[in-house]
Specification:
The chain is of the alpha/beta class. It is built from nine helices and twelve strands. It has an eight-stranded parallel barrel with strand order 1-2-3-4-6-8-9-12, surrounded by four helices. Strand 1 (3-6), helix 1 (16-22) and strand 2 form a beta-alpha-beta unit. Helix 3 (78-97) runs parallel beside helix 4 (115-130) and helix 4 (115-130) crosses helix 5. The chain is globular.
Length: 276
């Protein structure tokens, strides 16, 4: 298992590998555009070349892109759904330019309609993303956390999306905090085993491609998206130690921190010490 974090692309996407190397990453995650809105900055040939050079020089093994936060495939507004489809497809194309392994996204919220219709919108939207796509970057559904009508906060939701889309390249991004906030216990060897056995039964471990690695500011089943530094939240270091060395996880996925920059270096050091 390799470890990394979400890093900035300030000054150009070619700077992301440099920022990752500075804090001790072996892999890294980034946005390729503003997560809050606006058009995506062009990735030039020069930027692509420099990006790849920086990754090689700093021996970075894998890099992934997080889709913007504002997309919502389950929106009642057709304009928002269409823009979500367009933007995620653009992110896959942009990821393919720089050999990013994955683009992960949150399906969205169904607050304006029934769950069945919202799920249909999500499945149909993802199918449209794949229409004509020939790139190398894979799309991942990220497990969500939150209250209300958020889509993708249960293994059953994620399985329904994957089965509905029925595309061999669609996978899953686990998130330790989101899963914990949604009621999946990760604090001990027994509960980690139970959670991933349940994941395997409902979704299939073959669909698990990567994981965000965050402790939780909210208690088990708190239904809020609140990341905390490792060992300072309700999951605790013991649970992460089990996951880092778990025989079904360590050769399958890498861990990507999404904790605040002020403590992310220490979080990376903690993870590296856990690796047996």
């Amino acid at each position: 298992m390799l470890f990394g974090a979400h890093v900035s692309i300030a000054g150009g996407i070619q700077n992301a590998p440099l920022n990752a190397a500075k804090i001790g990453c072996e892999v890294f995650q980034m946005f390729s555009r503003s997560p809050q809105g606006g058009s995506a900055p062009k990735i030039t040939d020069v930027m692509m070349e420099e990006f790849q050079k920086n990754c090689v020089e700093h021996q970075l093994k894998e890099w992934v892109i997080h889709a913007p936060y504002y997309i919502n495939f389950a929106s009642a507004e057709e304009r928002i759904r269409k823009n979500s489809i367009r933007i995620v497809r653009e992110e896959l194309e942009r990821g393919s330019l720089i050999n990013a392994k994955y683009v992960m996204f949150h399906p969205g919220s169904a607050k304006d309609m029934g769950e069945a219709q919202a799920m249909k919108f999500v499945v149909d939207g993802i199918k449209k993303i794949y229409d004509g796509y020939k790139g190398s970057t894979q799309l991942l559904v990220e497990i969500s956390a939150g209250a209300g009508m958020v889509i993708g906060d249960t293994f059953e939701d994620v399985a329904q999306i994957i089965e509905g889309v029925d595309h061999p390249e669609l996978g899953v991004c686990f998130d330790t905090q989101h899963a914990f906030g949604s009621g999946y216990d990760l604090r001990t060897k027994e509960t980690v085993n139970a959670t991933f056995n349940q994941f395997d039964k409902i979704i299939g471990l073959n669909k698990l491609k990567m994981s965000h690695c965050n402790d939780s500011k909210v208690e088990l089943g708190g239904h809020k998206d609140r990341h905390e530094h490792l060992g300072k939240g309700f999951i605790g270091l013991a649970g992460f130690r089990v996951m880092v060395n778990h025989p079904k996880l360590k050769n399958r996925i890498n861990f990507y921190l999404e904790t605040d920059p002020d403590g992310v270096v220490e979080d990376l050091k903690k993870l590296k010490k856990m690796r047996v």
